[in-house]
Structures are given as C-alpha cells and as structure tokens.
Amino acid sequence: MAVDVGSVTYWYARFLRLPTGVPAHLSSTLASMGSAMPYGIAAKLLHPGRPVVALAGDGAMQMNGLSELITVADRWRGWEDPRFVVLVLDNGDLAEVSWEQREMEGDPRFPDSQRVPPFPYADYARMLGLDGIRVDRAQDVGPAWRAALGADRPCVIHAVVDPDTPLLPPRSPQEKVDSMLRGLAQEPDDGAAAARLLHEQQRHESPG
Amino acid sequence: MSGDAGTVADALVGRLVDWGVDRVFGYAGDGIDPLLGALRRRRADVELVTARHEEMAAFMASAQAKYGGGVGVCLATQGPGAVHLLNGLYDAKLDRRPVVAIVGQVVTTALGAGYQQEVDLHTLFKDVCAPYLQTAATADQIPHVLDDAFRTALATSSPVGVIVPHDVQKAEAPEPDPHAHGLLTTSTAFATPRAVPREEDLRAAADLLAAGERVAVLVGQGAAGAEEEVRQVVERLGAGLTTSLLGKPVVDESLPSHCGVMGHLGTTASSDLMAGCDTLLIVGSNDPWTEYYPAPGQARAVQIDLTARNIGTKHPVDVALVGDARHTLDALLPLLPAREGWRAEVETFVAGWREVARDRVTQETPGSTRSTSSTSCQGSCPPTRRWRSTSAR
Questions:
Q1: What's the half-sphere exposure (Cβ side, CA atoms, 13 Å) at B180?
Q2: Which residues pair with B164 in a beta bridge?
Q3: Which of A126, B137, B359, B391 is most buried, by the most CB atoms less than 10 A from its CB?
Q4: Residue A136: its chain B contacts at CB < 8 A?
Q5: How far apart are CA B302 and CA B7, in angstroms?
Q6: Averaged over B53-58, what is the pLDDT?
Q7: What is the value of ipTM here, to two decimals?
Q8: Which of B66, B357, B371 sits opposite A25 (nearest CB)?
Q9: Under 8 Å CB-to-CB from B198, ≥6 apart: which residues?
Q10: How does the average pLDDT of chain B come out, rounded?
C-alpha cells in the first residue's frame, strides 16, 4: 500500500484493515501531498512480484500523480506482477483543508482555493495503455476492485466521491463541531447537506 | 574519462555498489553528466530509475528506505534539480529514514561567480541534511565522503547530502587505499547494536506498569518487527492498544483490544482508550497529536525508544527505556504481572468504534450521485465547477 495525504489519509487510517504482512507507507510527519505515486513505484521496484495499491485524492494526482503515472506506463511491462491499482478519490475539493477551514477557523470553504479542476483520470490511464475504470455508484465499487486486481496491467479507479462527507475527528468537542457548522452556514445553501451529514456522524458516536 | 581507474564519478558509483546499492532514483542534468556516464558503465550492477521530477525521485528514495530496501539514493543536478529534491528529502528527515542525496554542482573554478545554475547548496541543504552534508572539493575525498554519508544516514536514520562539482566528477579517480597524512582510507563496515535498557530502568518501568489498572499501549513505527512482543505485553497487562499513523501497519488491527489509529484522523476507540487510561506505554512512537494523548497528570507513562532524544518530547514521561522495541519488550515481559486489567472495557471501545465505522461507511451522501466531471468535459468544462449547486437534495 502507498498512501497520499489529505482526506484519503483519514479513510486509510480509520477504515482500512491491512491484511497481515502488507506494508503501508505515506508521508506522515511531513504530510506532503504527492506521496502515493512515488511510494507505490518504489514499492513495486522493490517487490515486483507483489501487487501495489496506491490511494490518492484528485488534488495529489494533479500535483504529481498524473506525471508519475507516465513512469508506471513506461515500466509495468517489466514487472513480474503488473498489478498496480491507483484509487483516485475525486471529490473536486481539497477536502481536508476545506474541513479545516471550517473546524479550525470557523470559515466557509473558500472555493477559489479549494476547488480541484475536473480531470478524466480513467480515460487518461487508458490513453497511457493502462486500464481505467470510472465509478460513480456505490454498487460498482466491488466489481471495480475485482476488475482492477484481476487486470493484466496497472489500473486507475476513478471514484467519484462527495466533498460533503465530513472528516469528523473522534469525540470532537462540541465547540469544534459548532465551528464547522458556523463555516458551513456561510456556504451556498447554508452548507445544509454537509451539516446534516455532520449531525448524523455525531449521532453515530453516541447512539441511543 | 581518464586512465584505467576511471574518474571520480566511476569511483563514486563503484562505492555505491560496494554499499549494496542497486537502484538510484534520479533525473538527468548536464551538471551530473559524468556521474550518469559512470552509471552507464555500471549499468549491470546499479539501475538508474528516472522519475518525472526530482522531488519524485527523492520521495522514491525515502520510500525505498520505508519499504525495507535499505538506504535510498537519489541523484540530481546542480541548481534547479537540487532545489527540486528538497521536499522528498524532508519527508525522509521527518519520518526518520536513511537517504543519500548525490547532487552536482557547477565547476569549482566558477563557484562564487553567480554562475549559470549556481545555487549555494550548503545553505539549501543545511537543515534537511544537517547530520551530514559535504562537498567533495577534490578527488581524494572520494570515497571517504560517500562512506561517511552512508554511515551517518544509517546511524541517524536521516537524509544526508554529497555534493560533487562537475570538474571533480570528471577528475581522475584517486589512488586506492592511500596511507599518508591528510588522506583517508575508509570502508563500508556498519552495524547497529542490540540495544536494551539497564536492568534498573526495566524494573522501574515494570513497577509503574504493574501499578496501573488501565494501561494503554501506543505503538509507532519504531515497534516494527516487535508485533509479537507488543501483543504479549497488551495481553499480559489486559491493556488496550492504539497506534500512530506511522504505526498502523505494525499490529494486526483485527485484535479485539486494538483500538485503531489515534489522533485527529483516528478512531473513537483510540480516543476512549486515551481518555480512560491511567498508565501509558509508548513504544517507538513520536506521534505529534499531543491533544489526543492522555491529559498531563492523567496517566503515568513509560516510553521505549531507540533514540534517547525522542523520549518525553510529545508527552511527559516518568520512566524512559532507551532500547530497540523488540529486545526491550522481550526483557520487560518477564517482569510484568499477568492480569485482567481493563480488557473488557477496552473491547467495548473497539466494538463501539466498529459500529461507528459501519455507520460511517454506509452513510448516504446525497451529492455522491452528482456528475462531478470529467470524462465528458473535453473543451467544454465550466470555468468553475459548481459542486454544491448540482447536488440533489
């Protein structure tokens, strides 16, 4: 596993149960965006007989991942196991920082700084001679992973995900949640969709 | 290229091979053409892997060390190539991994003239390569500069830098094994010790841990290779386990006492564990999320770290154990009493988190059906994506 920095790090940290013996690395203390692709390539060169999965956001892919995908396209034919799956979580947003603008500053998300331009990640992969799968429905997630891990070459899974999904820290003090809500209230539509998800996530933590 | 011994560049590449290096991550530039030529001549022994940008080459070198490939080596030219390396080298510095950066420099005759691509590389790398940064100003400094760089990288788990001006790369390689005043003959010998704390420190730590009723164990990357010992300590004390982000891969997260990752991006179980513990055992972690540790005064703490300077830097610690995680835990285990601890309560934290996680990953997000982009926007992308207004509500 090779992991990037951003909201994807949260999903990795919280929800991914690593199988025994699977190494996973990321830029942890520097927390620099753009670690997933170069890390994945280094892992593959060390262990060409093992599959690699890289997890990245759309921001990191545009920062450097797209150009290092050229390196993958240039090298994969020499790999004993050619599987190199890049999961791109595309929410069109630098979501971790957007949520920090709300949580830490009580500010609304600033679209001018936070927006990530659209890009056809899966099409681009296919253009490079790799596989590419675009997923925008939950029921297609499983089949996409099966296809990507069954492929005879590297594969980009372009997953369309929702920037409204909160990154609620565990047992967040109410004042931090209030700060997020204050930020959201200043956004288009009063940030209603994200606020509703945030309340829901708070309830998950204190059921009954 | 000169006589039979080749150039300084040949000697340098030969020494990389002596150090067991079979892969160099880099990017070309005329400032390192002699080194690239030497790599071409040793192509059978060492592979040059190019990235599309020197920063990526440095990340790859850092990752090579992280995935267990030994010292990562990256290569960049003078000026812009050197500048590009920085971020990847800082990644190695902050996550404590050995990397050797080899960087070209303009010819020594032009240094100080504000020459084409001339950057003060000692200033540039002063911080990131603080443990060792040296310019080979003359052929005779190779290989000792390279040997010192590798040893320092390994001994301090840090990035280090070797700067080689273009004319020095091209100079005739020095005679091997000189034996004269001012000349160094060095080797590639290196080892790490088996590091175990003093008996009295182990005893103090065991007493502290035995006095606790609700022990939390925080595991970081320094516990890699000590999974079994960590499990035994957790089991013996009826403790709960959490990890730093770097420590996540160390212990199987399916264990019923494993609360997952701690911190802002962590789990409720880790938060409950830290909030409820009266004793903390930190193993090979320097996790920076201080507000997620137990409150100062809440828990007495023991910290195991191979590097003495890491002890107590993120949380007040009562007993320091300086040693490697595996042997230190191994020495500690026989001193610890077997007990139930707060195992049952910890398991409710873990079960609670698993329910939260299930709810979270099945949460319906109304925007997730919106079309965010991208396959159909050739030439017609709107200037700003109105990501919110297109959501179905």
A1: 4
A2: B104
A3: B391
A4: 368-369, 371-372
A5: 53
A6: 98
A7: 0.97
A8: B66
A9: none
A10: 92
CA dist., res. B117 & res. A78, Å (int): 36
Cα separation, B20 vs B188, in Å, equals 10
- Whether B370 has a pLDDT exceeding 50, the answer reads no
Q: In whole angstroms, what is the distance from residue B15 CA to residue B27 CA? A: 20
Chain B positions in Cβ-Cβ contact with residue A47 (cut-off 8 Å)? 67
A contacts of B263 (beta carbons < 8 Å) = 13
In residues, how long is chain B? 393
Contacts of B313 (CB under 8 A, 6+ apart): B286
3-state secondary structure of B73: strand
Q: Helices marked H in chain A — which ranges?
A: 7-15, 36-46, 58-60, 66-75, 95-105, 111-114, 121-127, 141-149, 174-185, 192-205
Two tokens, residue B271: 């938060």
Which pLDDT value is given to residue B5?
A: 74
A44-47: long-range contacts, CB 8 A cutoff, minimum separation 24: A44/A79, A44/A84, A45/B23, A45/B49, A45/B60, A45/B64, A46/B64, A46/B67, A46/B68, A46/B69, A47/B67
User: What is the C-alpha separation between B335 and B179, in angstroms, rounded?
Assistant: 52
Check: CB of residue A8 under 8 Å from CB of residue A55.
yes
For the CA atoms of B272, B274, B276, B278, what is the dihedral angle to 10 degrees? Answer: 170
Amino acid at B118: E
Of A140, A128, A13, A12, which Cα lies nearest the Cα of A72? A128
What mean pLDDT do residues B139-168 have? 98
Length of chain A: 208
Is residue B164 within 8 A of residue B36, CB to CB? The reply is: no
pLDDT at B367 over 70: no
CA B62, B66, B70, B72: dihedral to nearest 10 degrees? Answer: -10
Q: Å from B250 to nearest chain A CA?
A: 9
Pairing of strands B258-261, B240-243: parallel
pLDDT tens for residues B353-364? 999 999 999 998
Q: What is the pLDDT of residues B202-242, one digit of tens each?
A: 999 999 999 999 999 999 999 999 999 999 999 999 999 99
* Domains along chain B with CATH numbers: 8-170 (3.40.50.970), 199-363 (3.40.50.1220)
Cβ-Cβ pairs closer than 8 A, A with B, add up to 216
Edge to edge, the sheet with strand B133-135 lists: B47-50, B23-26, B72-76, B99-105, B159-165, B133-135
d(CA B329, CA B331): 5
| CA–CA gap between residue B143 and residue B137 (Å, rounded) | 12
Interchain CB contact of B373 with A (< 8 Å): yes
Check whether B375 has a pLDDT greater than 80: no
The verdict on B179 touching A (C-beta cutoff 8 Å) is no
Q: B67 and A47: CB-CB below 8 Å? A: yes
What SS3 class is residue B105? strand
Residue whose C-alpha is closest to residue A62's, from B244, B373, B333, B361: B373
> Which pLDDT band holds residue B380 (cuts at 50, 70, 90)?
very low
Q: How far is CA A146 from CA A149, A150, A155, B295, in A?
A: 5, 6, 11, 45
